Amino acid sequence: MLDFYSQFNPSPLSIKQFIDFENESNVSGLSACERKSFIFLRKELPVRLANIMKEIHLLPENLLNMPSVGIVNNMYATSFEDIMQFEKVDVNETTLDKFCQTLVKIRNRHKDIVETMAQGVLELKESHDVDAQTENNIQYFLDRFLMSRISIRMLINQHSKLIVCGSKEESSVAALLFGNELNGHSRHVGSIDPSCEIISVVKDAYEKARLLCDQYYLASPELIVQQHNGKFEKILSNSSFFAELERCSQIRIVYVPSHLFHMLFELFKNSMRAIMEHHSSNAEYPAIEVIVSRGKEDICVKMSDRGGGIPRSQMDHLFKYMYSTAPRPTKTDAHTVPLAGYGYGLPVSRLYARYFHGDLVLQSCDGYGTDAIIYLKALSNEANELLPIFNKTSSKFYRTQV
Ligand SMILES: CS(=O)(=O)N1CCC(Oc2ccc(-c3c(C(=O)NC[C@H]4CC[C@H](C(=O)O)CC4)noc3-c3cc(Cl)c(O)cc3O)cc2)CC1
Description:
By secondary structure, this protein is α+β, with helices and mostly antiparallel strands. The protein is built from 16 helices and 7 strands. Mean pLDDT is about 85; it is low at about 175-185.
């Protein structure tokens, strides 16, 4: 069955399709949405699982034989079998309920997979010499494996949040509690906010990172936020609309707030760490400046710090899984720098940006500071999932690399 489903390419969805899918259900009732989602997912989830499982099987023997990689492999095989039981069932209330609960079970099973995979890489580093080719292999695989995982969790979250998987009582309570409007704000569609106010997420991520910074450094840099809404530039001059523009000028995007938060939280931690270390002998710390801008195609969030910057020779390391994989500090290690990434914070943040055809880039001036720019698609119909495809090209990459 694995070979059968790995023959199909994953079908990317745009954010607009995720939204329209739910809006359509408003017309024909939730059960139509649930049925349509079930029919799509009972094929698409096995396709996405099978595509990445075939790549796991192409990994270098040394890595594949690591205990933690074996655990990941078995988890995927179990989840694939779980979904297979719905391949030919009739579509009725019982199977839809069971399917929902199976998705929640799979989501819980996979919740620590990033850490488990990182543990597998660590086991390899500690037991074998890792040559440049193997490191390239691992970088290529982890980018694709972690992107695939983001996409599978997105599909599961959209289905389970829209259908509000769980007991009917929970569903009715959820409907009572959340319904379609949240305190008059636009309603979320699963994990998507159709009107996500970017500056609010920026401030939230800053406050959470500042907490960690204050805990360790007993101080933290201030935040200066600006925005430039190019969308309204043309009619800015007409003062009669000014009040309206003031309200409209909050730059909003149809996006997944949790993805944006993850990226911003990671970047704030890195900027704060650089600033506090670079100015450790000062009593004053240069503020972090964030500019949010909206143009025709892109929405950009630029974070600028004066943390001393990084030489170009070191820049590539920041996105390297192998370079950053280090033993997680033990709880008793009182001197753990809370802002230091011991995992894959930056590479995963770039995957979140790229997942809907955006990007995350760093521009550093050694001796001065670093700019980090998050690019997001301004239009939801252009924000298509970017999915890894298992085919001859990807297989060849592993073969030539070995
Ligand atoms: C893989 S991960 O996601 O897990 N993770 C990536 C992140 C890393 O932590 C960090 C944090 C900050 C910095 C840093 C320095 C810095 O440290 N300079 C001083 C050294 C410059 C080289 C110098 C040398 O080696 O030559 C030795 C001093 N300067 O600018 C930044 C900076 C980086 C990012 Cl990405 C940013 O967004 C903003 C920034 O200001 C580096 C590393 C943990 C691991």
